[in-house]
Specification:
Elements: H1 6-12, E1 21-23, H2 32-40, E2 46-50, H3 56-67, E3 77-85, H4 91-100, E4 104-111, H5 118-130, E5 135-140, H6 143-153, E6 157-161, E7 167-170, H7 176-189, E8 197-200, H8 206-215, E9 219-222, H9 236-244, H10 248-251, E10 252-255, H11 257-262, E11 271-276, H12 279-285, H13 290-301, H14 331-350
Parallel strand pairs: 1-9, 2-3, 3-4, 4-5, 5-6, 6-8, 8-9
Antiparallel strand pairs: 7-11, 10-11
Helix pairs in contact: 2-3, 4-5, 6-7, 8-14
Bound molecules: flavin mononucleotide.
């Protein structure tokens, strides 16, 4: 069963506790103060380089200086990962940072290549530049993608992202409740059952974590849950909108509207992003032109936190689990609470029958 692979994870990432909670590499959000808190608490913090490779070296330096050698790793490895949105990054620049980094990130998270084959150059390039000290994690969203990626890249870890996930993902996918076990079965059948699977999308607390482990995940990834943490560098308006939102199945949607008005364009056509519904979304639905919607968004930006009011237009990327994020809580506490709660729930369920 895939969930036994948590031992492989603990071997490769010896500072992690079980069940391991992974901080998603959210672009401009998963910065060193947040990611290092997650790793310090026994989770796995990822830095979100996203599409801006110029942030890679400074973030790595900052994370190194925060962590120094405080957590156990193999020699020359930093207990932190780094995530790339591949279509937007010049691989050769990323590789040169990997080569020159005195401490290599423990893992590289690859997401959304322009073409699936690009992941081969990413995987080979990073393995060569770091002498395989940086492990390769690839985030996928369908069974077909999972199979293609393991055959072409042989990654160390696969992140299985379901449709409930906040932020960008495939426009068409299912929730992890069916996606994860189907991926697990398909991979095992083709001889790839040794690859640990990480569940992502809609996991907010110990209940979600225990469910994901039962589905066959070896660990879980959370993005939305960390949005309201004090270490998260987003505005209070955004944090309040996350805490306030509920019933995410109807108050969030997957859409390209927010990318268009914000100018974050260039994503492969198969991707969109999940966010809380707001005035920009509704106006788009009523037929407002993209130009006018963008103009109103830019006006709204001047309002600061008030731009996230009920009639606001500022984007709140978040997953369907947003209604379970009910307060601001330090990232390290989140990790410890979620791990503890998941273990208790698994024990309770184990004693039921
Ligand atoms: C605000 C936000 C930004 C995100 N940015 C990225 C990103 O830059 N790169 C990436 O690989 N995934 C990104 N994701 C998706 C995560 O990798 C992950 O799949 C997702 O957060 C899991 O679902 P959850 O939000 O329900 O926890 C983002 C998610 C959120 C909520």
């Amino acid at each position: 069963m895939a969930s036994n692979h948590y031992k492989t994870l603990n071997e490769h990432y010896p500072w992690t506790a079980n069940p391991t909670v992974v901080l998603a590499p959210m672009r401009m959000i998963s910065t060193p103060p947040l990611a290092t808190e997650v790793s310090r608490a026994g989770g796995f913090g990822f830095l979100g380089v996203g599409t801006d490779v110029s942030t890679f070296s400074p973030m790595l330096k900052e994370a190194s200086s925060i962590l120094e050698s405080s957590l156990p790793t193999s020699e020359g490895v930093l207990p932190i990962g780094v995530g790339f949105i591949c279509w937007g990054v010049d691989l050769s620049v990323a590789i040169s940072v990997f080569e020159s980094a005195p401490l290599k990130p423990a893992a590289a998270w690859l997401f959304a290549p322009r073409e699936p084959k690009d992941l081969i150059s990413w995987t080979e390039g990073i393995r060569k530049a770091t002498n395989s000290r940086t492990k390769i994690w690839i985030q996928v969203g369908t069974v077909t993608m999972a199979l293609d990626v393991v055959k072409s890249c042989n990654p160390d870890v696969l992140v299985i992202q379901g449709a409930d996930a906040g932020g960008h993902g495939l426009a068409q996918s299912s929730s992890i409740i069916s996606l994860l076990p189907e991926c697990g079965d398909a991979l095992a059948k083709e001889g790839f059952g040794h690859i640990p699977l990480i569940a992502a999308g809609g996991i907010i607390d110990g209940r979600g974590v225990s469910a994901a482990l039962t589905l066959g995940a070896s660990a879980v990834c959370m993005g939305t849950r960390f949005l309201a943490a004090p270490e998260t560098p987003i505005s209070n308006g955004y944090k309040n909108a996350v805490v306030k939102a509920s019933d995410g199945g109807v108050t969030t949607a997957r859409t390209t509207v927010y990318d268009k008005i914000r100018g974050t364009i260039g994503w492969p056509a198969t991707y969109n992003a999940r966010g809380v519904l707001n005035q920009s979304f509704w106006d788009h639905g009523k037929g407002m032109s993209e130009e006018e919607n963008k103009r109103l968004y830019e006006e709204e930006m001047k309002k600061g936190d008030a731009g996230w009011s009920d009639q606001g237009r500022m984007t709140t990327y978040a997953g369907t689990g947003v209604g379970l994020v009910r307060n601001t809580q330090p990232a390290g506490e989140i990790v410890k609470e979620v791990m503890r709660d998941a273990k208790e729930r698994l024990k309770t369920v184990g004693n039921m029958f």
